[in-house]
């Protein structure tokens, strides 16, 4: 399957999103930049179950435009570092939120082993083939006793009809196995669909950003490709053949100076 539609969705559209937010105002930034991860309620649940707290260093692997990292910087006081292979996404996260970003692959994170208190990967594993390497890398960069979190879009049926190009969905059981094989201990799990949807003003702000992007780029092949891919994903989520799975994990061991 071609990776091209995802490059459009995650790179080019990220830059357009930042442009649109600059036109509409900073209050549009968070809703527009959290599109990949669902609701703030689900992200806060995951942050709570991971035990995120002020001053903790959080590595966000496949951070996109940085909405989730910025959200938990505000709610839980963490110090995030964002990694994403798409330069456009990293630049957008810097422009929108002034966050620290590194261009890099989640399967070879450009940071030292054990240098973070926590790490997460949100909406990324279903977009990559080598999931084992992605999970192993998060495990590597988080110190003993630290926390690792995932939001993974999993398939609930044997075969998906017309899935988005470039996606590789596993089941919730396979996700559990993946996490266990990486040596992580599961603390808690949840389904994204069980959390409240974002409030209406949040949705309205995200839609307004979409409208500006469509106004300025709707005729381009890049926009249309990204839109087709997004529409396929929305259809699978609506018919229930794909669902968001949240998993909070812990790296075994004790952390110096922390009660684990
Ligand atoms: C659906 S978006 C989610 C973005 C963000 N985590 C969020 O929840 O809003 C998937 C992200 O995974 C990134 N990605 C794709 N391949 C990757 C890889 N090999 N390593 C790390 N991230 C990757 C994409 O560039 C994109 O930003």
From TrEMBL:
The name this protein goes by in its record: Ubiquinone/menaquinone biosynthesis C-methylase UbiE
Q: Which UniProt keywords apply?
A: Methyltransferase, Transferase, Ubiquinone
* Species this chain originates from: Nocardioides marinus
Q: Which Pfam family, any one of them, does this sequence belong to?
A: Methyltransf_11
- Xref: InterPro entries: Methyltransf_11, SAM-dependent_MTases_sf
| Molecular functions per Gene Ontology | S-adenosylmethionine-dependent methyltransferase activity
Ranges where the Methyltransferase type domain occurs: 59-148
Which branch of life, at top level?
Bacteria
- An example of a Gene Ontology BP annotation on this entry? methylation
